[in-house]
C-alpha cells in the first residue's frame, strides 16, 4: 500500500514511497548533493566528489551537456546556494543513450565551489573486487534527491532521503527477467514514477558514494530502481579526475 503520513512537514517528517520511508532532510546532512539545472530548472541530481568535480548519470547529459549548470548547498530546490557552469564533461567509452552499461558521467565546473557545511564532497568507495556483483557487501544505502514523485508534493521542494536495501544481483536479474550488467545494482521497492529528474541522484553507504540512480521509470510495479555501481567505476573516475579512493 502506498500512502502518506499526514505529519510530513518542513525540516522533519516522513512519508512512505513503495515500502521505504521517505525522510525530509537538509543539505547539511548530505552536503555533496547537487542539482543539475538547464535554463535554471532542476534537471537531474549529482554528487560532489571534490569541490570542482561532480558524478552523475550519463543519461542526464543527453543533448544538454553544454547548457548544464550545477547548484550546490541548497536544502530547498532552486533557492540560493552556489552555482557554477560546467566546463568539462566525460562519459565512458561505449555508452549509448538509454543503455544501462557505462551509464555514469563526471563533470568539472568552471570554478571550484567554496567548501562549507552545506557544500562538501563525498569520498569515493574502494574499487570493486573482480567477480563481485555490485552491492555484494552493501546492505542498505541512502539515496537523496528532490523529485521522488509520490512524495514531492508534500516536501515542497525540500531535500528528501530514502534508505532502501540493496538486492542481490541474482534477485535483480530474476525481477527484470533479463541479465542486468555487472556494473549495475538494484535496491528497494518500485517507487512509481521515479525517473526523469531523479536520475543522477547519489546513493551512499557509510558516507561513501556507492551508486548513481540511472533507472526507476517502469510501468511494472515489481521493478525496483537501478543504480550504476560507483565501485565498478572508481578506477575510471580516478583516471579522469585525479581523485583516488582514500582508505579511512
Automatic annotation (TrEMBL):
Q: Which species is this record about?
A: Callosobruchus maculatus
Q: Which PANTHER family match?
A: TRYPTASE-RELATED (PTHR24256)
Which interval of the chain is the signal sequence? 1-18
Q: Which GO terms describe its molecular function?
A: serine-type endopeptidase activity
Q: Which biological process terms from the Gene Ontology are attached to this UniProt entry? A: proteolysis
Which InterPro entries does the record match to this protein? Peptidase_S1_PA (IPR009003), Peptidase_S1_PA_chymotrypsin (IPR043504), Peptidase_S1A (IPR001314), Ser/Thr_Proteases_Immune/Dev (IPR051487), Trypsin_dom (IPR001254)
The Peptidase S1 domain is annotated at: 10-242
Q: What is this protein called?
A: Peptidase S1 domain-containing protein
Organismal lineage: Eukaryota, Metazoa, Ecdysozoa, Arthropoda, Hexapoda
The protein's UniProt keywords, in alphabetical order, are: Disulfide bond, Signal
The similarity comment for this entry is:
Belongs to the peptidase S1 family. CLIP subfamily.
Note the SUPFAM superfamilies from the entry: Trypsin-like serine proteases
